[in-house]
Please model this.
Amino acid sequence: MTRARAFILISFVVIVAAARLDAQWTQFRGPNGSGVDTATGYPAEFSPTKNVAWKITVLPGQSSPVVIGTRIYLTASDGDRLVTLCLDKRTGKELWRREVKRDRVSDAYKANDPASPTPAADDSGVVAFFPDFGLVSYSADGQPRWTFRLGPFKNFYGMAGSPIIAGGLVVLVCDQQSNAFVMALDRATGRQRWRTERPGMRIGWATPIVFRSAPDRTGVLVLGSTRLDAYDLASGAQRWWAHVGAGDGLGTPLISGDRILMSSQGSTGPALPAFASVLAQYDKDKDGRLSFEEFRGDKEYGEHFGWVDANNDRFVVTDEWNAASMQYVGESGAVAVRPGNATGKLVVVL
Model:
C-alpha cells in the first residue's frame, strides 16, 4: 500500500449525534477496562452516511481513540514521527498535533505497528505509550509535560499494552520474552514511583485495571501469560496471584461484585509439529537446526520464525522448538477469581 492510500483508507468516524457530551472513554476499553459506558442516547443504527456527525481522515495507527470532555485523543505514526492528536469531539476539528521521533525501529510482526497502544487521558491531558520511544505526556492544550524513555523490548509480535491513569499514577505493563515488569510513574512529573519485575511472564499485551478490595486498599490487576497478579497501587508490592492458564496475556479482566472474571488461553497438545519432521523437510544442510532462510518458505509457520528463535541468532534448535511447541499446553476457558481473606487466599470458580 502506498503512503497516499494509507492516509485515505485509515479514517476516523465518530458517532456523537445523540450522545451525551459528558460521556467519558478515557483509556483502553473505557471505564476501568470494562468496555461498558453508562451514557445513553447513542444511535442504534449507523453507517458511513447514517447518524454520522462528522468524518475525517487521520494518520495510520492501531490504537483506539479516547474521549474526555469535549476532547478526543488518538495516536498514530508517520515514518519516524510518533504522533499524538487532539480533536474537538463536537466538530472533528484538529485542536493540536504533537510529535516525537522514534529512538529505534523495532522489527515487530507485520500485524503490529508503532502506534498500537491506546493512550490514557484525564482532565489535565493525555499520556501515550510508543514502544519505539517510551511514555510521553501532554497537557490538555498540547503542551509537553514530560517523557520517559523505555525499551528496547524483546517481543517478536511487538508491544501493545496500554497505560492507565489511577491514584495520581500512570501504570504500564511491559510483558516480554525476558525481563517483564509493571511500573508506575507520577502522573504530574513523570518520575518513576515504583517498578516491579514479573519473573516467569512471557510476551503479552495486557492492560492493567484497578481493583478496590476495601475502601483503603487499591490494587492493580495484571493478566499475564500464566497468572493473574494483584499489586498494591501505591507501592507496587505483589499482594497475591492466581494461576489462570497457559497462554499470552491479552486484554483486561472484568470485575463483577467481589469476583474477577477473565478468559484464559490453553491447548490440549503441542502447538507445533514434531521437530524431526520439520528438519526432514527444511534442513537443507543437515546440520540439525533450522535457519531463517531454510524455514521462511513454510506457509503456516514461516513468518513466525522469530517467535520460536528465543535467542535471536536466526537459527532454531531442538530445545527452542520444543519449548515454543509446549508453551501453551494447559487449561483454557472462563475463570472467576474471588480474593479471600487478608492472607490473600484465592477461591477459583470455573
About this structure: The radius of gyration is 22 Å. Confidence is low (pLDDT under 50) at residues 1-12, 15-21. The chain is about 10% helix and 40% strand.
